[in-house]
Amino acid sequence: MAEVKVDVSKLKNYINGEWVEGDKHTDVINPATGEAVVEVPLSSAKSVDDAVKAAKAAQKEWALVPAPERAEVLYRVGDLMKERKEEIAQLLTLENGKVIEEARGEVQEGIDMAYYMAGEGRRLFGQTTPSELRNKFAMSVRSPLGVVGIITPWNFPIAIATWKSFPAIVSGNAVVWKPATETPIMAHELVKIFESAGLPKGVINVVYGSGSEVGDAMVHHDGIRVISFTGSNDVGRDIAGKCGQQLKKVSLEMGGKNAVIVMDDADLNLAVEGILWSAFGTSGQRCTACSRVIVHEDVKEELEKRLLEEMKSLTIGNGLDSSVKVGPVINKGSLEKINSYIDIAKNEGAKLVAGGSIMNEGEYANGNYFEPTLFTDVKPDMRIALEEVFGPVLSLIPVKSFEEAIEVNNSVTYGLSSSIFTKDVNRVFAAQRDLDTGIVYVNAGTTGAEIHLPFGGTKGTGNGHRDSGVQALDVFTEWKAIYVDYSGKLQRAQIDNN
Ligand code: NAP
Ligand code: MG
């Protein structure tokens, strides 16, 4: 197994291009071993204020740098991430626990995002459009907002940060970023890369600390024009209320209760592969993880049999061991939460057919390991079928028809990702139209988003914004409509031409 170490023993905030030591600290724990790997500052509102002041000053100048020149920094960021991909991936596994192959994939997502958003430096398209008046010119352009606040979760500690910071920076904003306290090492690495790439001081600032202290100070700071948040629904709802009161722009990406639909004509082997990957990859801790399989009753028994068979091949352990398929979950609190759903499901009448326990013997004793778990005969209105568990726990829900499958998929409060396995082209198109989620897969599991498409969900998953894709620019820019009258006289719209 690779020997991985952080290059410092204490992480520091990064404010105005300086590494600033914190007063109080807490340990970052490797979820695979329970060992402390580095200390992270627990900062206060004062650090947020310092970061906003630095960002505000830097943004004035940064906004005047031509966008193609701003993009040059992102090209260099992409190159540096590519050079250091393996090292960053190992550090990601160290702090987050996900298996190394998936960590490499996550770093690659950041590299892709760097080049894609660098390309936006030569686009950032607005529109020109005719004016209704003679000798008048009309257009719309994107303007930066100023200082943007980014709050990110632990489950994709580098990818989500790139989805947010890269579009923000290429469009001329400065950033104050609060990473999740569980996974601060990715912020340390990404900031070092920004520094080497020549990003001017103050354009990105990192303040470590708890959500209730640092996150809340960002939400309330009147120097921050937009909050871009990814995390849980409870926190997102709370932030939305506070931003609403201040008329502050807010973009929220939150939880999911994603389903794979397996129809009676599906390729069952392919469906099993897709389900295993999206349910147990990242130990079920992806916002797009599959936690429900909605299966046609005619193939339910066969699918269940094959799933149980294949689940036996899921090796569990430290993600740095490349033979491991399922790593630990993030922390003890998560482990307890996942475990609590086992009794909840059993008490509601769901049938446990695999897993269902915390693993705390032998090599698993110090890490946060939970057995890959399968419930069957689950009813759509049981809590296990409605609430986000965020662990390696899957429920099989039998249905009688295509129409019922769509209805069950759409019956949850979330709307992030969905998938259908079928060979019937008519069902494919009807499903694309009727599945009420922001992401739909056909003949693939519920995970695997590509960075040049919009990422986000309907209903309780978000508030209508999207991360990644060209759509991300809408979060970090304001549309400005510009009219140029070259007639030399006063022309009144809607009046002089009617
Ligand atoms: P979380 O507990 O909501 O935390 C997310 C971030 O918000 C962390 O940085 C956290 O800081 C901070 N925070 C906590 N309380 C806050 C407050 N009162 N004000 C401001 N910030 C606050 O979520 P998580 O447990 O890290 O992540 C898992 C959740 O994220 C799941 O629900 C998952 O579905 C969702 N997720 C969604 C997407 C998507 O794009 N839809 C992607 C990935 C994950 P501290 O933790 O440091 O205190
Ligand atoms: Mg949390």
Automatic annotation (TrEMBL):
Domain of life: Bacteria
PROSITE patterns per record: ALDEHYDE_DEHYDR_CYS, ALDEHYDE_DEHYDR_GLU
The family this protein is said to belong to: Belongs to the aldehyde dehydrogenase family.
PANTHER family xrefs: ALPHA-AMINOADIPIC SEMIALDEHYDE DEHYDROGENASE
Any Pfam family the entry gives: Aldedh
Organism: Ornithinibacillus sp. 4-3
Keywords, ordered alphabetically: NAD, Oxidoreductase
InterPro entries: Ald_DH/histidinol_DH (IPR016161), Ald_DH_C (IPR016163), Ald_DH_CS_CYS (IPR016160), Ald_DH_CS_GLU (IPR029510), Ald_DH_N (IPR016162), Aldehyde_DH_dom (IPR015590), ALDH7A1-like (IPR044638)
Recorded GO MF terms: aldehyde dehydrogenase (NAD+) activity
Catalytic residues (UniProt): 253
Designated name of the protein: aldehyde dehydrogenase (NAD(+))
